[in-house]
Amino acid sequence: MKNFFIGLIFLTAFAITITTVISRGFRVSEIPNGNVNNCANCHVNPSGGGTRDNFGKLVGQKFLTEQSSAGHVMWGPLLASLDADNDGVTNGEELQDPFGIWSTGDPNPGSSALVTKPGDASSNPLTTLTVSFSGMDPHAGQMLGLRVFDRTTMKEVGRTTVSSITSSFDVMLDVILQGHSYYIDFFADHNGNNLYDMPPVDHAWRIELNNAQGNDVVNFSHNTNFTDIDWKYLLTINFTGMTPHVGQLFELSVEDNLTSEEIARKRLEFIPGSGFSISVPGLELGKEYKVEMYADHNGNGLYDSPPTDHAWKIQFENNTGDVQLDFAHNTEFTDIGWKYNYTLNFSGMNPHVGQMLEMRIVRNDNGEEIGRTKVDAIPGPDFSVSIPQIELNHDYNVDFYADHNGNGSYDSPPTDHAWRLTFNSSTGNFVDNFSHNTNFVDINWPGATGILDDLAKLPNEYRLLQNYPNPFNPSTTITFSLKETGKVSLKIYNILGQEITTLINKVLPSGVHSVIFDADNLQSGTYIYRIVTKNYIESKKMVLLK
After folding, report:
1. Helix, strand, or coil here: 134?
2. pLDDT by residue (tens digit) across 40-67?
């Protein structure tokens, strides 16, 4: 009997040992190029088993068909879009399938030689961009600001400053992905105020890097072919005391306080430590902003109002250019009503490169347009566009068109090429793929007819519609609806937030109302109209073109 128990203990220990070192080998074939890193894609131990790395943790938490040893990896656009190790490169980019198009059994995408580990921040495919400047004597001693914009992802990927320009110098940033194309924007602070001013006050340029090969060198020799690069400033938030949330998901958004337009968002799959910093570009001088952020305290991958998750709001005004804020952890939580992000990855858009594209998202149950965006010139066959403000568990239409005839407005197909996609926001953030095709749909992009359709859908609710026409010259109609009788203020502001005029300031009954805004005495530009009632505040942008 004694020998039996000794043998049983030995077998048990042996079984436990086996459990800790054997990985789920079948999962290697369930991610693109999985065979390059094998078990090291998901495990700290290259042989598999034991502790998972950050990619393995993410897959295990949210992207298995079932929470058991038999679960299979759900590779797709959403998992590909996330950055499991917070290194600034998505899982898909590291595995050579940036849009998450690959399916199990397909040939491996991209180049296996470029595959890196999506769960290891020290392993990524970023290479160095070197900008080599010469002949910069006219700006000796001046400050230079430089940023790099990825035309594929439509996002800024890096920036730096040179405190004192010399005749010849190099700027180096580790931001380049092979095959991507970039804008490189920079300016010399010619008037010495430490801010960007439109040329010729400051001298600014844009150069392009197309189809990067990796470790690219771009040469620039001083010239007077200046370009207004519409420089945006950087917000940096320095966090301290975040110990209660180390390892948790963290999301942050920055909005224009006047228009409620989101200008940036940032997601960390895990808070790296008690103290850390987040930087996002997009600020303009003289504007007020609000920052909304939360730590996913209950670990379900979605926002829940406090105290389930811990959320905060901070506000600031940009009077300095770049802004530094300090945030120390506290328990003064605020329900921020977090909204999610929709991203559409376009591929094969060769027939429309250089054309304008517009996209909007409409909620199905009430016909509300929750957001829209415009790409002035489609940058290449493959690119991504995002629209925020998605609410959880709703059905949406995604309408978009390429301005095929180049007249600057929507025309029904086949004159312009238009499409409609649908999705449900049950996952929160949603990522979709679209490959160019000729299955065109007349999306009835809102013009006069669209306004009438919107009016017909308005029950007794609070809602502010997009003005029509927009752009306009010199007058436009602003329409809104009220759920109940009450005091209404409708004002016009310029882009700096300065009040231009008051259109309405009185008590109105419930129902639909319209007012004409005449801008005959104003200059061309972007303006904001803002409605304020006891229970509803909303702002929208409009463009005056003379």
Report:
1. strand
2. 999 999 888 889 999 999 999 999 998 7
